[in-house]
Amino acid sequence: MRNIPRAALPILLAAAAALALANGMRQSLGLFLLPVTRDLGLAVADFTLAIALQNLAWGLAQPFAGAVASRFGFRPTMLAGGVAYAAGLLLLANAQGVLAVMLGAGLLIGIALAATASGMAMAVASRPVPNAARSSVLGIVSAVGSTGPLFAAQVAQGLMDAFDWRAGVLGLGLLALCLLPAAWIAGRVDRMPIAPAAGGDASAMAAARAAMRHGGFVVMAGAYFVCGLQLVFLTTHLPSYLVLCGLDPMLGATALGVIAAFNVVGSLFFGWAGGRWSKGVLLGLIYVTRSVVLGWYFAVPPTPGSTLVFAAIMGFLWLGVAPLISGAVVEMFGLRWQAMIQGFAFFSHQLGSFLGAYGGGVIFDAMGSYDLAWKLGVGMGLAAGILQVVVALPRGPRPRPAPA
User: Fold this and answer.
1) Looking at domain 202-394, does it have CATH number 3.40.30.10?
2) For residue 86, which phi and psi values (nearest 5 degrees)?
3) Cβ neighbours around 202 below 10 Å, total
4) What's the rounded Cα separation, in Å, for the pair 259 and 279?
5) Fold match between domain 1-190 and domain 202-394
6) How many CB atoms lie under 10 A from the CB of residue 92?
7) Rounded mean pLDDT of the chain?
8) Which pLDDT score is estimated for 196?
9) Residue 299: HSE in the Cβ half-sphere, 13 Å Cα cutoff
10) Mean pLDDT of the 70-92 span
11) Distance (Å, whole) CA 273 – CA 261
12) DSSP state letters, 316-359
């Protein structure tokens, strides 16, 4: 860490700040579900569909945002994302019906996240640091980004309590404007040269084709799908599951808070570990461990104690994948098109996220319980994790044939 250039420090701080702001505002939107739907006379499903649209727009836009940043620079891309974020929140704050909610909270914020959140922040943080420190730096940036909900939710809830939900959304809109100076400073990375060996001279199309033909990347992206499925299934359905089991509704909120706290520790640990051991193997072990813990928790009746232990373990394993995925993409393809290629993997993650939220609800409506949903999540996670480990295990040199 001592080898990090001094000029890189403001860039890393700005990337972490942008990630914290983008994550914090996105994860605070759930606070507005009931106030918005009651005030505008909407169904709860209308608001949740807007959030689902946000996730799909984010995933679809991520590869394109990465390609634009690689071609034209991170500064203009992130600045445009900050403007889109503020515009989406302004549209939501003035919404009079479902269309404005869909466009503001859904489409615009989804596109803005592609230009400001994890994919962009990790790509920016990868560039100005030496190889030996990259994984640890990515872990620190990811950990700082995990703290966003701690202040964004307070701003939103405080303004709602003092005024109304529209004031809360406008408060987040003012926070979104803070993305602009963060983007400007993070954009200094555009002036930093990329070593030819790390970036290569391939075009965007050639880089995309190379990624799609790379077996290790394809497996990693497929396993990332299951990662999104498991995590969004939990954030969407765990509170309801606890209520159905007769536990205090506040336990769900407490569990999500515990997940967020341990998420910081896990991001730091896996950023450090990724600099010492195989990133692909660590990813596979995360998926396998998550699946085992999911199976243990849902196989027996939950208690407050088991729920908090479960939340702590899952939080530790939550965003540790971010520095590992980013670092693995750099190792496979270099820095030149990292943001775009990482976006392809993230699109897979977002498809899994959509299925985890929506599919879990469909299964519950059809069967009256979450049993099949969590069993499918556990089975898919074990399969994805084991395959990820097998593919990532280092292979020794092939033995040469004996001379005739």
Assistant:
1) no
2) -65, -40
3) 15
4) 22
5) yes
6) 27
7) 82
8) 46
9) 10
10) 92
11) 19
12) HTTTTHHHHHHHHHHHHH-STTHHHHHHHHHHHHHHHHHHHHHH
Encoding tokens for residue 343?
Answer: 């976006």
In the predicted structure, residue 84 carries a pLDDT above the cut 60: yes
Amino acid residing at 195: A
**DSSP per position, 171-195:** HHHHHHHTHHHHHHHHGGGGGS---
DSSP codes of every residue in 271-327: HHHHTTS-HHHHHHHHHHHHHHHHHHHHHS---HHHHHHHHHHHHHTTTTHHHHHHH
Element (H, E) at 19: helix 8-28
Give the count of beta carbons closer than 10 Å to the beta carbon of residue 152: 25
Residue 404 vs residues 1, 399, 400, 401: alpha-carbon distances, Å: 52, 15, 12, 9
Ordered DSSP codes for 42-97: --HHHHHHHHHHHHHHHHHHHHHHHHHHHHH-HHHHHHHHHHHHHHHHHHHHT--S
Q: Can you read off the two tokens belonging to residue 244?
A: 């159905």
Tokens linked to 151:
């202040």
| CATH number for the domain formed by residue range(s) 1-190 | 1.20.1250.20
Q: Are 101 and 44 in contact (CB under 8 A)?
A: no
Up-side HSE of residue 74: CA atoms within 13 Å toward CB? Answer: 35
Residue carrying structure tokens 């889109």: 84
CA atoms within 13 A on the CB side of 234: 26
Confirm if 318 and 259 have CB atoms less than 8 A apart.
Answer: yes
Task: Count other Cβ atoms within 10 Å, centred on residue 403.
Answer: 4
pLDDT value for 402:
46
Q: Structure pTM?
A: 0.77
Q: How far lies 386's CA from each of 291, 302, 391, in Å?
A: 11, 27, 9
pLDDT per residue as tens digits for the range 11-20: 889 998 998 8
Q: State the DSSP code for 36.
A: H
Number of H helices, E strands in the chain: 20, 0
State the residue for tokens 């208690």: 303
Answer whether 154's CB lies under 8 Å from 40's CB: no
Q: At what angle do helices 8-28 and 148-162 cross, to 10 degrees?
A: 50
Burial label for 82, CB within 10 Å (0-12, 13-18, 19+), is buried
CA distances to 11, 38, 47, 49 from 43, rounded to whole Å, are 43, 8, 7, 10
Amino acid at 12: L
- Domain residues of the chain, as ranges? 1-190, 202-394
